[in-house]
Amino acid sequence: MTISKRCPKCRKEYTLSVKACIKCGTQLTKFIVRVRNQDNNWVTKTVGSLSLAR
Ligand SMILES: [Zn+2]
To answer: What is the value of pTM for the model shown?
Structure first.
């Protein structure tokens, strides 16, 4: 499972250590969670907080 962040304006993805978008300065509050399912496909979920991601 991998967790990353995405800027809602630029749709650019960042690692968890990045707090704000480098381009536009927007606070990164959305988390993208990727989980590999039984069929070996990546399932992507967007959640509003880290506690939901886990
Ligand atoms: Zn941005």
So the answer is: 0.72
